[in-house]
Amino acid sequence: MKFIAILLLLVLSLPEANGAFPVSRRRVTRKAPPTPAPTATPAPALDRFLSAQFETILSPLSERATMPHAELTALRQYLSGQLGRVSLAEREQIQARITVCEALEQAINERERAILNPSASNWPGRSVFWRGKIEELKGKIATAPSAPLPLGR
Predict the structure, then answer these.
(1) One digit per residue, pLDDT tens: the chain, 153 residues?
(2) Are 104 and 75 in contact (CB under 8 A)?
């Protein structure tokens, strides 16, 4: 009788018998986590920003637009982060892009000052100046030595 009682206790204490764990004996295969998509290279990131925001930044003061401070800051930080990861030739390309970001930031700041005091500013003339300056800096990007830029490493 003791034997049957011990056997019964043993059977009931098994995880599968009391329902503590699933009884299924299927083999579970785990999928590898998805590979993150490579981040954009600096060239397309700056080009996208310029195509979306350039006219907004240099628009007349009568066109009240929200300035892209956060996007410009994020782009500039991304470019600065790339400087330590690339060769000397690639650094010149990235530094030229950072210079464009700095010029855009200066244009935004000047536009915001002009909105606060339109009578003391010459925004139409200054916007022409900034347009020329940024176009000139973009030309320097095209002439800087280029090498393939890294995707996010």
Answers:
(1) 776 767 666 666 665 544 555 555 666 555 544 433 334 456 688 999 999 999 999 999 999 899 999 999 999 999 999 988 888 888 998 999 999 999 999 999 999 999 999 888 899 999 999 999 999 999 988 776 654 544 443
(2) no
Nearest to 40 by CA among 30, 49, 28: 49
Output the pTM of the full model.
0.66
Cα dihedral 51, 91, 139, 68 sign: positive
* Contact between residue 147 and residue 90 where contact means Cβ atoms under 8 Å apart: yes
> Which residues are within 8 A (CB) of 140 and not within 5 positions of it... i.e. 6 or more apart?
96, 99
